[in-house]
Structure formats: structure tokens, C-alpha cells
Amino acid sequence: MLSHVAYITRDTAATADFYTRLLGMELVNAILDDAIPSTGEPIPYFHSFFRMADGSTIAFFEAPELPPLGEPPHPAYDTFRHLAVQVLSLIHI
Prior knowledge:
Elements: E1 4-8, H1 12-22, E2 26-33, E3 45-51, E4 57-62, H2 76-80
Parallel strand pairs: 1-4
Antiparallel strand pairs: 2-3, 3-4
């Protein structure tokens, strides 16, 4: 089983709304800290976790002090970088 997969978000509120309200996932944990525990780097961040039906989680980091990611060197990077989940029905928003 997957423990979790983590992505960067620039808007935690919008991310939480999408995963809880639209996909029906539960927000199961949130961490706010001033430094990254694994490296000790002094980068403030907010880390949120949303539980999927199989028990694994999708997690997001919001670190406002980090600069935005640059453009990928090829458009295929945007295609390859994705997450596919199975849902019970489609909702058009």
C-alpha cells in the first residue's frame, strides 16, 4: 500500500476544497513547521494529508517563501507529471 504521495501547492485552501468537497476525501492530518524535519532547512511550510478510500494519502506542501517552479524543458513533463485516481462518478466543475 502507498503511504502517501506529496505534491507542492500554492493554495492550500483551494486544494483542501477540491479534495474534500469535490472528491470526498477526508483531511486527516496537517502540519505547520518552520523547518523541514528531514534536512533541517529553515523553510516554513504547511503540510496537509487527504485520505483515499484504500487508506493511503495524498499530501501537499505549501511553502510560500519558495520561488515558483520554472517552466519544464519540454511539454511532455506536464503530461508525465500527474496523479490518476479512481472515483465513483464524474463531476463537471
